[in-house]
Amino acid sequence: MPSIRTNADVAARQAAAPILSARDLTVDFKLEHGVMRAVDGVGFDVRRGEVLGIVGESGSGKSQILMAAMGLTAINGRCSGSVTFEGQEILNASPEKLDKIRGSSMSMIFQDPMTSLNPYMRVVDQLTEVLVAHQGKSKAEAVDVAVEMLERVRIPDARRRILLYPHEFSGGMRQRVMIAMALLCKPALLFADEPTTALDVTVQAQILDLLNGLVHELNAAVVIVTHDLGVIARMCDRVIVLYGGRIMEEAAIDDLFENPRHPYSQGLMAATPRLDDNTAHDLRTIPGSPRALAGKMSGCPFAPRCDRRIERCTAETPALQRGAGGRAAACHLVTP
Amino acid sequence: MTEALLSVHDLKVHFPIGKGLLTGAKGAVKAVDGISFDLKPGETLGIVGESGCGKSTLGRAILRLTKPTDGTVVWLGQDFFALDKASLRKARRELQIIFQDPLASLDPRMTVGAIIARPLKTFHPELTRTQIDARVKEAMAQVGLAPEMMRRYPHEFSGGQCQRIGIARAMILRPKLIVCDEPVSALDVSIQAQIINLLRKLQRELGLSLLFISHNLSVVRHISHRVMVLYLGKVMELAERDAFYANPMHPYSKALISAIPLPDPKAERARERVTLQGDLPSPLNPPKGCRFCSRCPMATDLCHSTEPPLSPRSDGRLVACHFV
């Protein structure tokens, strides 16, 4: 069941201290032919009980934000800026420091459960590892907790199935195992990178319902990265629209969908075919292709595809302007 | 009533498995298990279903890219499966396919011009180089590619452009039917919209018929005239587009539509949802009776014992369910 979020809830939540704060987060990758900036000065806060969505197309840098926060940036990547978890700096932190947080207070669900589970280990060993390491449980206690968690994510016959290998599960069941693993230590912060993209729609619906229920039960903060505006609409309280590594717009969920202000957000919504759209008109398109990841560039990253582009857009990068009601937009032509 | 361009009757594709040296086949995956439909000229039939429902196998079997086990396909009045090699080759000029992965379906060592020209060179060896070049440029312009790019290689193009190259290659022989196998699934939303509009435009202008295979019901709504829902190799529902989306009748169609999250948070919160339990059963061992019975919220004993026939309803649609 999706939760009903009143304005009072949202206001109360906004008053609490954020559990995760990113400021001016930048991720550069060193390539043969130069440096590619995947994330360019991104800042946001997430509070407990809040689900933040990050939506963008391929190459927008959406996954790299999560990877940087988890300390999983590839070896040729360099992160700068700041990411704090409960006030502690975690960007570029030592593996020892990160290991105390990752898996226990902060965990992640990846897109592809087949490649993120270890094919050589039985599910039971993968699940109990984290409990033994972080909570000092005995193996037997850990197995009980793991079985209980598999039951919570509605894997039937969990006590027997926990002894299987990942390939013996279907895609939907594997994703449940991933979710169980991520939630085992009852994390305060959960990252989900395209958690249902690899799944069929009927299974996606089950997994989204399940995630919704579990994160509200745990009162966790959640950051979901996806390209699917439908998943955002179903799951999130607040959304960041990312393009070319920069935040184009940020708003509460209803505000963004009712009244997108940035030309890119507007284009993205108009280009999405809707199931409940009765007309047989052509879809609105955004000309060109998403930015090929290149070196640093001046101007708005969306300018080459924007139909409202003026001269200033290619010369000067618009700053993210914050306005009322938690709205923000980075565009010379609109006020947030 | 216009004459059908393509008539598929009781098509079956079974893949034998576990064929040991002495034991013989242990069973078969019935990927397509008795599917029938007609396609009119200029019509788009959307074929939808989840993984393993047989939608891609169906498309490939119709083109004889996969060997069908049983059934007939009548193409312009001819039995397509009975054609000999020479006649099949001739008929195939009019039946083309576009694949899901735009880059993988293009030869990386051929220039884009050569890729698009290939079908033309194969089927029309009498054409001169100048004539071929002119046709290639025309096809490229038709799909929105700059003809100057014909000397470039596939890796120099984005995913959306590669899909346009695939479409140009399929279009160059001026076919009557194109099987589109998940042509936009690998593309970003903004590019997906461009390709959908392009296919709609080509169809309008050239009177093409499309078999549009997709798991995305929102995309299918924007391109199809009729929609066919498959589940484990069988048709669950076959209906006119607007009637289908306004009122899906089969419990599986209902569940599919209700499972798709709408890009509209208020509508999402207000929506009543039918969430199916469980995963797709193994196609090796589909449930007895109705194939959908193991996940159907309406299933009764009858569904577990007797398979419902695909039968017509008052508005002309076909539904395979005992209860609707």
- Kindly report the average pLDDT value of chain A: 89
Low-pLDDT windows of residues of chain A: none
Oligomer description: heterodimer
Number of helices of chain B: 11
Keywords:
A: alpha/beta; Rossmann fold; 2 domains; 12 strands; globular; B: 324 residues; alpha/beta; 22% strand
Description:
Chain A has helices spanning 7-15, 62-69, 95-101, 113-116, 123-135, 139-152, 158-161, 171-183, 201-218, 229-235, 253-258, 263-271, 311-315; strands at 20-31, 34-46, 51-55, 77-85, 88-89, 106-109, 189-193, 221-226, 238-243, 246-252, 321-322, 328-329. Chain A has 336 residues and is an alpha/beta fold. Chain A has two domains: 7-105 and 187-287, P-loop containing nucleotide triphosphate hydrolases (Rossmann fold); 116-184, no CATH class. The longest helix of chain A is centred in the middle third of the chain and has 18 residues, at 201-218. Chain A is globular and about 65 Å long. The relative contact order of chain A is 0.14. Chain B is an alpha/beta fold and 324 residues long. Chain B has one domain (6-94, 175-319): 3-Layer(aba) Sandwich (Rossmann fold), CATH 3.40.50.300. Helices cover 33% and strands 22% of the residues of chain B. Chain B is built from eleven helices and twelve strands. The two termini of chain B are 27 Å apart. The relative contact order of chain B is 0.13. At the A-B interface, helix 8, helix 9, helix 10, helix 11 and helix 12 of A face helix 5, helix 6, helix 7, helix 9 and helix 10 of B.
